[in-house]
Amino acid sequence: MSCDFSGTILHAYLDGELDAVRAAEFERHLETCRECTATLGAAESLRSSLQRAQLYETAPPELRKKIRTELKISAASTGGSSVAAWRWLAAAAAILLVTGVAWFAVPHFRSMGPESVTSAEVIDAHIRSLQAGHLTDVASTDQHTVKPWFDGKLDFIPPVHDFTDEGFPLIGGRLDVLGERNVAALVYGRRKHFINVFVWPTKDSDTPIHPPGSRQGYQWVHWRHQGMEFCAVSDVSAQDLHELAQLFLQ
Amino acid sequence: MSTTGQGKGWDVLDSQDRARFEQLVLPHLDAAFNLSRWLLRNRSDAEDVAQEALLRAFRFFRGFNGGDARAWLLQIVRNTCYTWLEKNRQVELMTEFDEDLHQQSAANPETLAIAGDDRERLARALETLPVRFREVIILRELEGCSYKEIASITSVPIGTVMSALARARQRLQRALTQPAQQEAPHEL
Predict the structure, then answer these.
(1) B165, B78, B179, B162: which is closest to B122 by C-alpha?
(2) Over the stretch B94-113, which tens digit does the pLDDT of each residue have?
(3) Could you tell me which of A201, A206, A56, A208 has the C-alpha nearest to residue A117?
(4) Which residues face A118 on adjacent strands?
(5) Is B166 on the interface with A (CB under 8 A)?
(6) A54, A57, A182: best mutation site toward chain B, by most B Cβ within 10 Å?
(7) DSSP bridge pairs for A201
(8) Whether pLDDT at A66 is above 50
(9) What are the E-state strand segments in A151-202?
């Protein structure tokens, strides 16, 4: 490596870690430096190979269960039996006593098989998605790009629609995990806020849009429609979420 | 959080702490497992170590000041992995940043693209990297951490993260373009 830029500067540029002035300086340099152009091309190619290879390995469900047991955290996701639900309610009641927070119901969305999803998991997933770089795996406002992206990644195809005209532009989609099952997450914008709509298949019959729930400043609405279960979660108003849910039902 | 614990044991964490731990830290279990898996290079050791790290995190949770929970957890995971490696596979930690053991070969983007499509090959190449190079690749490319986050997880200055990442990528490219030399992984 003979060029001064081809070491760390080039990689910091690739990673978006240079400030605007230094990035511009490096781009000017790139126009004339063949070595850096080649090195940058190789580094970009390596990055896309790493991403295509899907090397990320997620925690096995047994490990999750083991840890929850060890921590004595009652987990609704460890079983859909009423025992688990009661344990969860008991834990919630304990927290209620400790914090004195008014907490009217602990929603427990029944999904396929023995698994179930709690509002805590939905909110966790929403918060997690807001961390830098986690919001979307496929970023596109085009429903015809987002929908096929899910093909082959899940054992179902979620319904994907763009609602830009109605004030809910589609931002993209990603895979997520709720209650130990893979779900599709569709991301919509609402003014400057993000809404996650989680979708997974269900065998239960359709339900209307449930009254919204609220916790820690987040709202969610939940409904079932044509073999799919939906949960929309965000910090936008419950009314906005309800509006979005109605668009899905149309 | 208003907690008035007298001891350090995790049994004194009250249900409020538990709920907070569940909400802030447990969502990063995948990240914890993924980092352990790549540092230890197998899933079953990673399960044990990730579990131990999560329990340690729970014990230390009082000391968590409410910043970036993922970085905080991954720092504990990384330390737990290193302790495990020291005990069980010390030789892996002794492979330092020995840059010039191999001749440089210009990485050809096309060759790389072909090689990279094969998950197995890429995984094996990644596993031939010394652990300190491997960890920056995992944190940056798989976990999407910023340099600042990597610096805090690995307890080194940002400048060191930058150079480690640059060199790690060069090493990985070389490992991919010189498949014949992957026979003795830890000597590379």
Answers:
(1) B179
(2) 655 444 444 344 445 544 55
(3) A201
(4) A108
(5) yes
(6) A57
(7) A228
(8) yes
(9) 170-178, 181-190, 193-201
Give A111's pLDDT tier (boundaries 50, 70, 90): very low
**Residue given tokens 């060199």 in the structure block:** B167
Q: How far apart are CA B119 and CA B131, in angstroms?
A: 19
Mean pLDDT rounded to a whole number for chain A = 79
Counting residues of chain A whose pLDDT is more than 90, the rounded percentage is: 26
Of A70-79, A113-122, B60-69, B97-106, give the lowest mean pLDDT range. B97-106
Q: Which residues contact A217 (CB under 8 A, 6 or more apart)?
A: A235
A105-113 contacts, C-beta under 8 A, 24 or more apart = A105/A213, A107/A210, A107/A213, A107/A220, A107/A222, A108/A76, A109/A222, A109/A229, A109/A231, A110/A80, A110/A202, A110/A204, A111/A178, A111/A179, A111/A181, A111/A200, A111/A202, A111/A229, A112/A181, A112/A200, A112/A201, A112/A202, A112/A203, A113/A80
Q: What DSSP string runs through B174-187?
A: HHHH-GGGGSSGGG
Do the chains contact at A95 and B172, CB–CB below 8 Å? no
CA distance A140 to A146: 6
**pTM summary value:** 0.55
Predicted-assembly ipTM surpassing the 0.85 threshold: no
Contact B117/A at CB under 8 A: yes
- According to DSSP, residue A207 is labeled B
